[in-house]
Specification:
By secondary structure, the chain is an alpha/beta fold. It folds into 2 domains: about 170 residues, Rossmann fold; about 100 residues, Orthogonal Bundle (6-phosphogluconate dehydrogenase C-terminal fold). Strands 3-2-1-4-5-6-7-8 form an 8-stranded mixed sheet, sandwiched between helices. α3 links the parallel β4 and β5. The longest helix is centred in the last third of the chain and has 27 residues.
């Protein structure tokens, strides 16, 4: 059987890393999949579930055999993780990540990577509010977009390989500059999470109610705030790493909320209807 890669290493077996491992094995994309993590019990559990063929706690010479290394750690630790494994990378090794912030990662990794290996930033637009490999599943990336962020120095052959890898997983691959990526996803992904976290906290922190107020929530509240159940550590890191873009979009949201508040306070029915209609029409075009 012809494999796309002989050996793929995945550092960080969370939802994305675990789902990658499942599909790499199911679709015979690599002969061998090795998981790298910090917790031996969790790594053994992933091995017992059949997600990976081998596992290690920490990096050693075993990773020097890997053709593709996927970093699935929180975004704040991606550069640190690559720094730890960089001394073991073989010539021609391809390294990528799955984080949702790109500019600071690509800049930091550029100063770490050995010249004989290649790093290309990646961001599969997939996942749920759940975390951990226990929530991983087959087919997570089918018909989902995966953004790759090559630079002017990126090796074209490596980019072609990584593109083919994601397409083999069923994803639609697009390329984007890192700054553009972070501004776009600051708006359409990071801001909605900040708003969802804030809405839930605003209600549970209201003095005249206790947490039991949430038992009265129906579909609208539950749908809107589903993402507030996401991993706090992951979103802490995203907020810190993309803070400039997030603060920009938070300010834009505050201005829109002020406009709505003023229309309600003044009893301006025409302004309210126009406000709601504008939003409805935009949402229907999605």
């Amino acid at each position: 059987m012809a494999y796309l890669f002989n050996h793929i290493a995945i550092a960080g077996l969370g939802l994305i890393g675990g789902s990658l491992a499942r599909d790499i094995k199911r679709l015979h994309i690599a002969r061998c999949v090795t998981g790298y993590g910090r917790n031996s019990e969790r790594m053994q559990k992933a091995h017992n579930l059949g997600l990976i063929d081998n596992w290690r706690v920490g990096f050693d010479h075993s990773i020097s055999d890997a053709d593709l290394i996927v970093i699935g750690t929180p975004v704040c630790s991606i550069a640190e993780t690559i720094k730890a494994l960089a001394p073991y990378l073989k010539a021609g090794a391809l390294v990528t990540d799955v984080g949702s912030v790109k500019a600071p990662v690509v800049e930091a990794v550029g100063a770490i990577m050995p010249p004989t290996a290649c790093f290309i930033g990646g961001h599969p637009i997939a996942g749920t509010e759940n975390s951990g490999f226990e929530s991983s599943c087959e087919g997570l990336f089918v018909n989902r977009i995966c953004v790759l962020t090559p630079t002017a120095d990126t090796d074209t052959t490596s980019l072609e390989k990584l593109t083919y890898f994601w397409k083999a997983l069923g994803a639609q691959v697009i390329t984007m500059e890192v700054e553009t990526h972070d501004k776009i996803f600051g708006a359409i992904s990071h801001l909605p999470h900040m708003v969802a976290f804030s809405l839930v906290n605003a209600l549970v922190d209201t003095p005249e109610f206790d947490r039991k107020i949430l038992q009265y929530s129906a579909g609208g509240f539950r749908d809107f705030t589903r993402i507030a159940a996401s991993d706090p550590i992951m979103w802490r890191d995203i907020a810190l790493m993309n803070r400039g873009n997030i603060l920009h979009w938070v300010e834009m949201f505050k201005q829109s909320l002020d406009t709505l508040s003023e229309a309600i306070a003044s009893g301006d029915d025409a302004a309210l209807e126009a406000f709601f209609k504008k939003s409805r029409d935009a949402r229907r075009e999605l």
